[in-house]
């Protein structure tokens, strides 16, 4: 649904700027014609022998302004076309990954379920022997560590959860991400990979859990940290969603992504960073188009 809304919004922007380009092209033609008429209104007075040249500076200024406005509209149109291309590519990549995941699940799910059950049983048996009563499982250090004496939220065992663990530690190691990571830890919010429909990630306040799309299980910790910053902001706010809350969530995602990305690129995170760079008023207009049902 979010992808569909984004496509619809981009198409609306594309239509708008196509119309603006045509309208401003017509304005340029009209001002050119007005300037030409002004310049042609000069005349020669045979009685005085003088050539009268009219002052057409106002028409020249009007033409210059019309040309500038046309260039602005053409630039906006190119931007909308480029975002459309990027979104289409990102959607195609997502669908390809989802299809591979579906095929893998249909073939390997029974075996994986049995293996996971055995691993969980082994881990529970190990914890029953080695973990003192009431103690939490400490996070594996990878950058900044969580608050001393506290445990990170519950996560399923395995490589995927280790990736999330590292992403949480990476989030906590940033100035902007530390309060978000603290909120996730303080509230005991579960963080896991799972099915998210067409969303990349979401926070479920009823279940107090952050669910990140299974397709990102093996992505970089930087990308995961950025998404955790977004969803963790919802944990931090602890109130019904709103346009303002989404703006702050996207802002947190952009801030973390800009800090940890290095030379890495990611279609969705790059898009969020670009949207936030537009400034709060314009970014909120985009968010309203994505979530028209949300209050301010």
**What is the helix content?**
55-70%
The fourth-level CATH homologous superfamily of the largest domain is Metalloproteases ("zincins"), catalytic domain
Order of helices and strands: HEEHHHEEEHHHH
- Rg, Å, rounded: 28 Å
- What's the N-to-C terminus distance? 20 Å
Mean pLDDT: 80
In short:
The chain is mainly alpha-helical. The chain is 65% helix and 7% strand.
Structural features, described:
- With 296 residues, the protein is mostly helical.
- The chain folds into 2 domains: 14-39 and 54-105; 136-296, 2-Layer Sandwich (Zincin-like), CATH 3.30.2010.
- It has helices spanning 2-40, 57-130, 159-172, 178-186, 221-237, 243-260, 267-277, 280-290; strands spanning 43-45, 50-52, 190-194, 201-204, 209-213.
- The strands form 2 sheets. It has a 3-stranded mixed beta sheet with strand order 3-5-4, with helices on one face. Strands 1-2 form a two-stranded antiparallel ribbon.
- β1 and β2 form a beta hairpin.
């Amino acid at each position: 649904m979010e992808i569909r809304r984004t496509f619809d919004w981009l198409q609306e922007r594309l239509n708008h700027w196509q119309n603006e380009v045509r309208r401003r092209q017509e304005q340029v033609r009209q001002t050119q014609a007005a300037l030409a008429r002004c310049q042609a209104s000069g005349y020669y007075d045979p009685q005085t022998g003088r050539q009268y040249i009219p002052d057409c500076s106002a028409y020249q200024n009007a033409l210059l302004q019309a040309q500038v406005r046309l260039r602005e509209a053409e630039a906006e149109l190119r931007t909308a076309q480029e975002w459309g291309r990027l979104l289409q590519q990102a959607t195609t990549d997502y669908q390809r990954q989802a299809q591979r995941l579906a095929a893998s699940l249909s073939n390997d799910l029974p075996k994986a379920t049995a293996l996971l059950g055995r691993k969980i049983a082994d881990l529970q048996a190990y914890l029953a022997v080695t973990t003192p009563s009431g103690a939490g499982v400490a996070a594996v250090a990878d950058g900044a560590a969580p608050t001393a004496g506290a445990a990170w939220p519950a996560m399923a065992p395995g490589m995927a959860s280790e990736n999330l663990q590292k992403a949480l530690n990476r989030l906590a190691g940033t100035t902007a991400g530390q309060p978000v990571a603290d909120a996730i830890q303080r509230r005991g919010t579960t963080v896991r990979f799972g099915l998210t429909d067409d969303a990349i990630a979401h926070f479920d306040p009823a279940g107090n859990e952050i669910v990140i799309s299974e397709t990102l299980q093996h992505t970089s910790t930087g990308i995961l940290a950025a998404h955790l910053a977004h969803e963790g902001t919802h944990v931090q706010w602890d109130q019904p969603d709103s346009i303002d809350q989404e703006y702050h969530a996207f802002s947190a995602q952009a801030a973390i992504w800009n800090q940890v990305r290095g030379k890495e690129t990611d279609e969705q995170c790059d898009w969020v960073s670009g949207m936030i760079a537009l400034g709060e008023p314009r970014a909120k207009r985009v968010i309203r188009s994505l979530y028209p049902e949300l209050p301010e």
